[in-house]
Amino acid sequence: MSVPEYFVLDNEDRMPRIGFGTWQTSDDVLEKAVDAALKAGYKHIDTARAYENEATLGKALKRWIGDDEDKRKELFIVSKLPPGGNRPELVEEYFQASYNDLGLKYIDMYLMHVPFSFEHVPGDLHPKNPDGSMKVDLTTDIVSTWKAMQKLKDSGKVRHLGVSNMNEEQLKRLCEIAKPECLQVEVHILCQQKPLIAAASSLGIPIVAYSPLGSKALADMLSTKTGREYPSQLDLPAVKEIAEKHGRTPAQILLRYLLQHGVAAIPKSTDPTRIQQNINVWDFELNEAEFNELRSLDQGENGRICDFSFFRGVEKHPEFPFKK
Ligand SMILES: NC(=O)c1ccc[n+]([C@@H]2O[C@H](COP(=O)([O-])OP(=O)(O)OC[C@H]3O[C@@H](n4cnc5c(N)ncnc54)[C@H](OP(=O)(O)O)[C@@H]3O)[C@@H](O)[C@H]2O)c1
Q1: Closest residue CA from atom 39 of ligand 1
Q2: For helices 194-203 and 168-175, what crossing angle results, to 10°?
Q3: Please, where are the H alpha helices in the chain?
Q4: Average pLDDT for residues 13-23, to the nearest whole number?
C-alpha cells in the first residue's frame, strides 16, 4: 500500500507525514538532535510551550535556515498553546511567547494542546497546589479559546490551527466555529484509535500520532508511579518478526504501520542513527497479512499511555477528554 508523504492542507500547504518529536529533551541534547534531524531530512518538527525548549529549537532552526527563505519554506513547524493559556484573553500572550522563542516569521501549525486548563500563573506552566495536585481551572471554554485562536491567523504569524488530545464530541463542537486542520493524539500499535480516526476522517481532519513508538520515558515514569506494566512495543514478537523479514528495525515497522493506518507520526529520538532510521520508512511496505497482524494488537483505550495521570486533578475537569 503506497502512502503519500504529506497531508495536503486546505490551502495546499503540505504537512509531512513523518515529523520529529522534541518532548522530554534537555536543551543541550535537543540542539544536537535537531541538527541531526534536519540533516536526516525531517521537515516537520513538533514542539510546545509546555516542553520549555522552544528557544533551543529556535536556535537550531536559525542556524539551519540562515537567510535562506526557501529553506524556511520547506519546513513545517508546530507548536502548542499550553494549558495555562487556554482562555481567550491569554491566547495572544502565550502564542507570542512561543513565536518570540522560535524566532520564525511564521509558525506553520499552532495547536490547542489540551482541552482542560490550569490556572494562569506567570512564569509557571505547571502550577501545583501544596498537595502536589495541579491548579486546575474548571471553567475552561474551549469554544471561546478556539475563537481567539482564529484571530492569530489574521496576524500572518500562524498559517494553520489545530488541536490535540480532543475527543470526537469536542472536535465536532469546534467544527461549528472552524474545522481544526489537524488533530494530534496518541496513536500506536497498542492504542490505534480506530473510532477517533474514523470520526476525524469523516470531518476531513488529518491525524498526527504522538508517542508512535510507545513513549518509553513516559511509560517508565508511570510504571514507577503506579506499578502498571507497559509492554515495550519495540520488543513485541510480531513486530520483531516482521522487522526481521524486511531487514528493518522494529521502530521502522511501528512507524510504517502508522503510515499505512492513515496517520502522520512524530517519533522522538536523540540518537543520530535512530533519527535517520525513523525517517527511512518510505521504501518498503507491509503486506496485507503483516498489516492485519499488527492491526490485531490494538488494545483500544487500555493501550493508552498518556492519560495525563501525571497531572493529578485534571481528570475532574469537565473537558477531560478520555473516558475509560
Ligand atoms: N500533544 C501531546 O500531548 C503530546 C504528548 C506526547 C508526545 N507528543 C509529541 O510526540 C513526540 C513523540 O512522542 P514521545 O516522545 O512521547 O515518544 P516516542 O516517539 O513514542 O518514543 C520516544 C522513545 O523511543 C526511543 N526511540 C526513538 N527511536 C527509536 C528507535 N529507532 N529504536 C529504539 N528506540 C527508539 C527514544 O529514545 P532515544 O531518544 O534514545 O532514541 C525515546 O525513548 C514527542 O516528542 C512530542 O513532540 C505530544
Answers
A1: 269
A2: 10
A3: 27-40, 54-65, 69-74, 91-102, 142-154, 168-175, 194-203, 216-226, 237-246, 250-260, 272-279, 288-295
A4: 98
Mention every residue, 6+ apart, whose C-beta is less than 8 A from residue 139: none
Give the tens place of pLDDT for each residue, 42-83: 999 999 999 999 999 999 999 999 999 999 999 999 999 999
Set of cell numbers at residue 215: 513513549
Q: Nearest 10 degrees: CA dihedral of 208, 186, 150, 22?
A: -80
| Eight-state DSSP code of residue 179 | -
CA-closest candidate to residue 84, choices 133, 132, 134: 134
The CATH topology of domain 6-316 is TIM Barrel (3.20.20)
Round to whole Å and give the CA distance between 105 and 51. Answer: 21
Helix 272-279 with 250-260: angle, nearest 10 deg: 30
Q: What is the dihedral of CA 173, 178, 182, 184, to 10 degrees?
A: -30
Model pLDDT, residue 324: 60
Strands 6-8 and 14-16: antiparallel
Amino acid at 119: E
Q: Any alpha helices (H) in 88-136, and if so which ranges?
A: 91-102
Output the residue whose Cα is nearest ligand 1's atom 15. 268
Nearest alpha-carbon partner for 41 in 249, 271, 262, 280: 280
Residue-wise pLDDT tens digits, 109-157: 999 999 999 999 999 999 999 999 999 999 999 999 999 999 999 999 9
Q: Which residues have a catalytic role annotated?
A: 51
Q: Which one of 22, 23, 270 would you pick to mutate in the ligand 1 pocket, going by the greatest count of ligand atoms within 8 A of its CB?
A: 23
What is the domain partition of the chain in residue ranges?
Answer: 6-316
